[in-house]
Amino acid sequence: MNARFSRRDFLKASIAAGVAIKVSFLLPSARAQLIETPPLPGPDWLKADGKPRYRLDAIAKVTGQKTFSRDYRASDLPGWPKEQSHAFLIHATKADQVFEGIDLNVLGDDLKPDRVLLHEDLMADGIVIPVLGFYGDVFLVPKGQTARLLGQPVALLIYRDFARYDAAKRMVRFNDSVVRYGEKAPYSHPANYGAARYVRIGGSDPSDEDVYSPLKDAVIYGGFSDNEPTWPAAGEGDPMALGMAAAEEIKKEIDSAGDDALVLRRNYFSQSIDASAMEADNGNVWYDSSAGTLHAMIATQSPYEVAEVSAILVSKSKFPLKNVDLKVGYTVGYGTKDHAILPFYCVVAGLYGDGRPVRLANDRYEQFQLGLKRHAFWMDNALVIDRATGKFRAMTGHFKNDGGGRANYSFSVAMVGATAAQSIYYLPKSDFSAAALASRAVDAGSTRGYGTLQSMSATEMMVDEAADLLGMDAIDLRLKNVFKSGMKNSQGAIPAGALRNEEILLKARQHPLWIQRAEKKASFDAANPGKKYGVGFGHVQKDYGTGAEAALATIEFDAKGRIRLAHVAHEIGTGATTSQAIMVGDILGRVPDETEYGKVLWPQMPLESTDEPYTLSQSDEDQRKQNPRWTPRITSPMSATNSVYYLGHATREAARALVELSIWPAAQSLWSRGIGGGALAPYSVRSDELRLVNSIVNAGGMPSLSIADVAAEAHRLGLITGVTVHTFNRWQWTEAEFDIPGVGHRKMAIDAIALKYGDGAPPDKKALMTLDGWQFLNRTAVSYPPVQRNNAGVTYYAPMATFAEVVVDIGSGEVALLSHHTITECGTQVVPELVSGQIQGGIAMGVGHALKEYLPLYEDGPGDGTWNWNRYELPRARDVAVWSQTAEVLPPLSSTDAPKGLAEVVMIAIVPAIANGIAHAIGKRFYELPITPEKIREALT
């Protein structure tokens, strides 16, 4: 989340190659319908209060019109050839033997592929891996070398017809004779991906200046000796040396702690899992050599990135390229389709289609073998607690994750896991380190939770055990150490807004599940011989955002008051298309009549960026921002938690700008008609009294106006009737100043704006709209959050507390979840039903992580190609207490509270809650996930 790769080189390469990039989201076609821009919902879509009865895409979903990228073939795509070719990959299942080639004799003459591609073919044609390191160093294993990771492809086979493709794919699956291996050889996975350390020593009081912290001083970066991280020497002067001196001080304090302190040291393990998105990775690519255009239909959470990287992949090859036209549809991935490698295998396949589109789509075996995984984590924790007060004195955590054979986001995930480890607690002193290891395992990426599920679950299990050892109520111990508003996190940053964990804990302490747990356990255990009852509690707070969140949004209205919204957000299952529309309605008094989502082409916003929001130096950024069209990042990939707050910020800023620049002055004009200043003159009405509800405009006792009347007046006056904004957040919002024609100087929480004027605007104003009917307005000043702000790691949090009521069968070791109750806080709920859905779905995922889901990392893991849901156990409705779950969401502190990104935190607290509930039930604690029946039976033996 903090450490991202620099894309400067390949962006320069794409520009030098003269490649035009187009990303589009399909409109209905003759044979299929892809609805990133949804059809109009039914007439009953909105309730009287303007809130939705159902999702914007609900009718399409229930009537079978909602399609995913996977559903498309060439014949469904306008302008594409109707003939469809198909491809599949052959994978290496051994990483310690030299690859010598493939043997396709098993296919016979009838099933031989029309084209076989090996590494040497790609090299000869100038095709190289894009973003070297991040995606590895080769697409296909070279002959005479070992695979970098288990399951790495060695060959790509293309068929011109489906029947032969399907039969051949079935023939080679599980056939050990197809890939030929030679002699034993050392593993060839990359070097380890990175090590970082966050050390903080606070002042004598939480409000005092830190003695040392990453935000104030530096994040410490290390190297490796084998798989052990190495760190700079402690010393004076250099910030990292000072940080290591602070780390040594913390270690000495822990090692020398006396009897007045509890020193708890524990090691934890969290397993590798498959996110099991129902849509496996897929793509369909047509290379039109005559036009030099690469057409692609690909499932991805990061479409802009896929288009750019595809251009680089092709730009130095023998295939002439002028345009990349990427089409994207509905998808779902829980992070596994964010910067995954399969889209680029799809591009490679398409280049060799001989003018025909080529479809490459994982089946479930291949998705287990090639899809991104959640990282396995090893955590070595120590916690020091004052016995008399129950106050935490210090905490350390030294973490390692296994990123497999491609770097992807492994180092970033490790760092975020470390920065999250403090969870909901204030720590006067802390030392958290992260090491991302490379191995022959399948590569892992930005899967939902992003390292925090692993580290915070361990912290919560540790705090619960500490309470037992101290003889304290576990919630009381949490209350003594809860992180409060204005305190600093382990990076030395003060989080945004109000932190309401104390309020949640006080509410939890009074819940019947907690108050009655001892009594219920005694009665249940007595009445059910062979079974043990327990209640566990977990409470975490999850950061949301990346430290480089950028978005674009347009809102405009015509002279009849019809509102149009266009946005970069696209739907990955979170309900973004619904929530963005509702946000517009909350501010403008009616939802948009027309929406366009997933928009990437913005001719009215001629922004420039090398997209280095993390790696550009402060001096370079200061120089670049003198260009009024420069921005650190154009747009962000879609993730589970960035739509409602970060992408929604662009929506809200555009809507508010329209209110100020158009709706308010147009309403004033209407109210001022008549002699003596009309109905407005006798009153003193301010803009903050303006209310827009149910398509009606009111303010301070003025006559009600319809949106249509106000819009007509705005157009008549030639006011601003359309606004496009660009936003950027680096753990705080960028602000810029603009001189707006006819309005004056304005400072806004955006960094770029484009304007559209109404029908009645004078010719000189209309002449300014030279960019597709818009005027791009150069800013007069801009304040980007300093690059050093990245050391904050995070500043935005959403909390979640969960009770788990469990029963353990001491004979079988089976754990039954009787019920669970959650308490959360997410600011203003834009669409409460979407929040409820996130809670229910997230908890089910957390139950799977706690009790069921597990992937071996190496030779017996998914890289061998034999894993499917017959071996990988997912939770079902009977496992997640689907009919006995309850949840409560704290009301916002005011009607102006911003919404918070909730979608990741919902799956975390249930994990330690279950672990702590099992400990309450049987008196045994577990330090490795998942907690399986076998582990329980062993513990009870």
TrEMBL record:
Coiled-coil ranges from the UniProt annotation: none
InterPro entries: Ald_Oxase/Xan_DH_a/b_sf, Ald_Oxase/xanthine_DH-like, AldOxase/xan_DH_MoCoBD1, AldOxase/xan_DH_MoCoBD2, AldOxase/xan_DH_Mopterin-bd_sf, TAT_signal
Region (Disordered): 609-634
Superkingdom of this protein's organism: Bacteria
Every Aldehyde oxidase/xanthine dehydrogenase second molybdopterin binding domain range: 507-592, 785-880
GO MF, any single term: oxidoreductase activity
All residue ranges annotated as the Aldehyde oxidase/xanthine dehydrogenase first molybdopterin binding domain in the record: 254-482
Pfam families membership: MoCoBD_1, MoCoBD_2
Protein name: Aldehyde oxidase
Species of origin: Pseudaminobacter soli
UniProt lineage: Bacteria, Pseudomonadati, Pseudomonadota, Alphaproteobacteria, Hyphomicrobiales
